[in-house]
Design a protein that fits this description.
With about 300 residues, the chain is of the alpha/beta class. The chain has 14 helices and eight strands. The chain has two domains: about 210 residues, 3-Layer(aba) Sandwich (Rossmann fold), CATH 3.40.50.300; about 35 residues. Bound molecules: guanosine-5'-triphosphate and magnesium ion.
Length: about 300
């Protein structure tokens, strides 16, 4: 494990991939690796890109990655999205522009399913980001589909959160519903080659006036590679602001707090489900609840008392 971690620290792609797989499978041996990995993480800028399905997140991320490579920066991409074109063999679709990414040793792309065992996905995403960070990637981009609270939570991993919309009222309302307005550090109106981009920008601006939260709005056309330079300028400005104001440290604390609680919860679930002594006593408690002898709250207290003993 130690050797694997050290290889990952040197940027060895197979070691990185192997460690992320261990994280996904919830392997206990990962702990040993993370003891070595963690002290070396913290240098990368973690950018979350979210938005409802099909707004062009993956296409945009590819364009961002190409620009970062032109700037000489290495890039890690984690797509928390089973339907993403990053998935499996159809890595980046058949788009010729993306070929340089697929064969670039300084770009690491990984897709992760939405649900791990015991709901452990977010935990594994945190590990993946940390591993990529420690392996020396300058920029790490995390793609999530903003449809539910879980996806909004996942984005707590990011230093900078980019929320992507497209022209048209439907997506706009969905975005508000999904709670994405609150988490945006930068808005992107993608597919601005289509009609209606200006009115989406205006809607956004009046929304922000009402909520008294002003964040930059950038129009892009990811398929044309347009507006991506401006987006990267805003992303960099935001990172600089985070560093200048101490907000970066607050966000990192929040990220590690979420991760810590996630790990503890995961371990508790595992104990309750997998450890013989708990499985039996939980089974017995469930029987008593079902038979009306005990209420679920009192039963939960008994379980907790057992765990803390
Ligand atoms: N016209 C236009 N089409 C775009 C643009 N960006 C992306 N698309 C197209 O929109 C479709 C969805 O793009 P993706 O990048 O897969 O979108 P996504 O948000 O990652 O989708 P999910 O991961 O499934 O949520 C593809 O057919 C893209 O070619 C754009 O700027 N303009
Ligand atoms: Mg996608």
């Amino acid at each position: 494990m130690r050797e694997l971690a050290e290889r990952a620290l040197r940027g060895d792609r197979r070691a990185i991939a192997r460690l992320i797989s261990l994280a996904e499978s919830g392997s206990e041996s990962l702990k040993e690796a993370m003891e070595i990995i963690h002290p070396r993480a913290g240098r990368a800028h973690v950018i979350g890109v979210t938005g409802v399905m099909g707004v062009g997140k993956s296409t945009l991320i590819c364009e961002m990655a190409l620009k970062y490579r032109e700037m000489g920066k290495s890039v890690g991409i984690v797509a928390v999205d089973p339907t993403s074109p990053f998935t499996g063999g159809a890595l980046l679709g058949d788009r010729v522009r993306m070929n340089p990414l697929a064969s670039d040793g300084e770009v690491f792309i990984r897709s992760m399913g939405t649900r791990g065992k015991l709901g452990g996905l977010s935990g594994a995403v945190y590990d993946a980001v940390e591993i990529l960070d420690a392996s020396g990637k300058d920029i790490i981009i995390v793609e999530t589909v903003g449809v539910g609270q879980a996806e909004v939570d996942v984005i707590r991993i990011a230093d900078t959160t980019v929320v992507v919309l497209v022209p048209g009222l439907g997506d706009f309302i969905q975005t508000i519903k999904a709670g994405l307005m609150e988490i945006a550090d930068i808005f992107v109106v993608n597919k601005s080659d289509r009609p209606g981009a200006d009115s989406t920008v205006n809607e956004l601006k009046s929304m922000m006036e009402i909520s008294e939260k002003m964040v930059p709005v950038v129009c892009t056309s990811a398929t044309e590679g347009e507006g991506v330079d401006e987006l990267l300028v805003e992303v960099e400005n935001h990172f600089q602001m985070l560093k200048d104001t101490g907000e970066l440290e607050r966000r990192r604390r929040r990220r590690y707090e979420t991760e810590l609680v996630e790990i503890v919860m995961g371990r508790l679930k595992k104990m309750i489900y997998d450890e013989g002594r708990f499985r039996e006593s939980v089974g017995e408690l469930v029987r008593r609840i079902t038979d009306g002898e005990l209420d679920p709250h009192s039963a939960a207290e008994e379980v907790l008392a057992g765990l803390l003993r």
